[in-house]
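Anyone else keep sequences and structure tokens together like this?

Example one:
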Amino acid sequence: MRALAIIGAVIAQIGCGSPRPVETTQGPPAPLIAPRASADDVVVASVNGKPVWGSCVTVQAARGANKQAALAQCIDFELLAQRAAAHASDADVREATHTAMVSELVAQAYEAGYTQPAQFGAFWGAAYKKGIFHLRHENYRASSYVRIPVPAGAPPAAEADAKAKAETIAAAVAHETGLMGPSLQELAQAAVPGTKLDHQDVPAYRAGGLDEAYAKALFAVKDIGRASGAVRTQWGWDVIAWTDDVPTADPPEADVDAALLPGIKVAYFGHWVDDLAKSLGVHVTLDNDNIAKLEDLP
């Protein structure tokens, strides 16, 4: 909302050719006249003295109309434009004009104008660092484990008991396929009834983001849905199922830029608006008392 308000002020100033604020109750500064497309453009008709250009007819004909229909459409456009200008004092017309001007500015100056990384300056570099790991990365694996926890300093007997139970679980699931968290937990509990088991579904990580022993066991599993043997991690004795895979990705830089661009354009929009406001010396004053009243609106 802040961004659109600033753009509205910017457009009002551009439209009036004045650095001074314009009251929002005023209509458009003057009736608009369709512009000539080029030096070779010709007037093919006029409506109340306002030109209908040949370029309009060419565009409409390219969209499928024959020449006479295209001419009629362009004359209709000019009639509608003059009718809208005559109603410029209507509140709904002013609002629609204001909204259309904002939309056109954003479409032409921002959406179509910001298409290359260099145009975003340092903002692109920061956003690139945050987003690149989603697009270019080594193999990630998701997993699920059951664990017999072994507290630090536990006696050898507790260590041996935990290891034996983990090996019993591993043997019970060794030939299972399609294992996921719930099925692993159910089979493990059945293998060692009455034993308290820790369990967690772990999202996809690269090997370097996991406990070293855990990662070594997980990445040694041959197929998704199969489980490892008993493995000692820093928390206890684990049996680990490989539940999902994110393959290694190394797209070319052009593909990375294309994938990051939509999100970065959304994030950069507020900065772009602020730069517009600064360049035109726009000053925004907030009425905090009235803003607070918005919370009471239905």
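And example two:
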Amino acid sequence: MPLAAAEYPLLNIIWTMLVFVGLVIWLRLLFTVFGDVFSRHDLSGGAKAGWCLLAIVLPFLGVFIYLVTQGEGLAQRNTARMQAQAQHVLDATGSAGSAREIANAKQLLDGGTITQAEFDALKQKALAQPAA
């Protein structure tokens, strides 16, 4: 009775793992492209349909063309989306005012307008304020 390892050699296992990881990476890219296409407000419906059709008909080529031609904008839109979410969280928790006051005090400190002791006092005051 042969062992299971003899029926499926180590190189086949490694190749299978590489193919699986590659598939997961490609699916992540595909979902990123579709998510970006549908969240964009500057594209018309026809342009969205065209990008989706290209990604479906020529999957690898369509995704890579989108990433090459729209990659910079994709990164900027993701950054803006994350900053908006972070600002929303700060606003919802009421700590946005404190963070803003500390940032303003830091700018004053960096500009030489206030001393380190004054900055520390302003920071303590901002942190002591109750959340709204």
